[in-house]
Amino acid sequence: MAALEAARKLIVGVIIVYLMILSLVPETKRRRIGLKHAVVEHHHHENKTAVAHVASGPAAAREAPRVGENRSLASLHKTVNVSAALQRAPLYLVYVYFANSIPPDHYQWASIRIALYHGNSVLLVTYKAVAVPRDLSGQVTILFAEELETELLRLFRQKYAVTQGTTQKEPWERQNMERFFVLHEMMERRRMSHVFYADSDVAVTSLLSLDAMKHAMKHAECDSMLSFKNDNNTFADAVWVGWAGTAILTRALLKDFISYSVKLLEPEPFVLLKWKFQLKPYVCDMSIWYLFMVAHGVYSGVPLSEYWSVPPARHKLLPPSASKWRFCDSVEMGFDHMRGHRKPGFVFDRKTRRAFLNKKPLLSIHFQGDSKRDIFEYVSVS
User: Fold this and answer.
1) Is residue 319 within 8 Å of residue 264, measured between CB atoms?
2) pTM (2 d.p.)
3) Is the residue at 152 inside a domain?
4) Could you report how far apart the first and last alpha carbons of the chain are, in Å?
5) Beta carbons within 8 Å of 350's beta carbon, 6+ residues apart
6) Among 52, 195, 299, 341, which is most exposed with the fewest C-beta within 10 angstroms?
């Protein structure tokens, strides 16, 4: 079993490294080997013009790697058995920011600029009043949050009153949960099977691919990806971190999650959140995700309720769940949980704008908390 687990992790690691190698290959090279972005069946409702701008807009052309810069990596690339299908479909990178205005110097725009540099297809859900910076106009698909409200979201808002006194900042904490309601509704309307969701202070430093990520997740034996393998994250610790701020989410998973989150606000299951609050304030979207994963989640074949040592008496307070979801941990998949740029062993390649941690590719950087302004050091580098 240990040998099988080691082999599985090796395969996932190889695929992740392949993705990083591929993100270094200039756009013209990717086109020659048949790896150009394409709009596929579940994106048939997408604005194709906007998608084309993301793939080949002026920023991409202006910041393309110089000729000869990647010779050694191009040589290495030839030794990899490249499947054109692996990179054919873009994995949409989605940000959700509830505000009537986002200042031009806000970190949200910095995150988007970094993602676009690496060739990603970016979609921002925000309010209609938000003005998009001129250099990003036409490169980012904008959807209006006001048009994505549903009856279930309105029900959630009504029931959310039960959390009074257990959360920290409002309406911010409530809106952190509401992101997943509008995200699911967006996926429903556009018939999107998967998205890569990122918090606004997360910079994706790699090229995302739907098919390649699905391929990696298949070998990791999971359906979706969140960050949850943190220290001190057992049930008794009462920290309860299920962080979806750098996540690969499916439409079906989100449907289960938003429905279950409403149920968790009923009096009996909310006892668990009150208990958590008394031990380790406070309650937030990570707490809701944690309990959802306790009820529904499996990691490496082990139920997360068992993995986190949830007492049976506590588990019984949760609403019953009919479905099970297999989760990957985002850190194990090569993404940053928090402040990777401040950790020993972090290296940023200023020519390719790629990040490394302990000589391994770091596919994203989470500029959490007071490190948010650090992101501007990585937007315009020479």
Assistant:
1) yes
2) 0.80
3) yes
4) 47
5) 381, 382
6) 52
